[in-house]
Amino acid sequence: MTLVHAPLGAIERARRPLRPGHVLVTLEDQVIVTWRVGEAALRARLPTALRPVVRGGDAFVSAVLFRNRALRPALAGFPRIGSWQMNVRSYVRDPTTGEPGSVFFHGLHVSRRWLARVSSWLFGVSFAYLPFTIRARHDGAHLVDWNARSRDGRVSVAVHAAALAIDERTLDLLTNAHTGYVRDVHGTLRCWSIWHRPQTVETAIVNHATVADLPTLGVGAPESALYVRSVDYEVYLPARVFSPASG
Question: What's the pTM?
Answer without folding.
Answer: 0.94
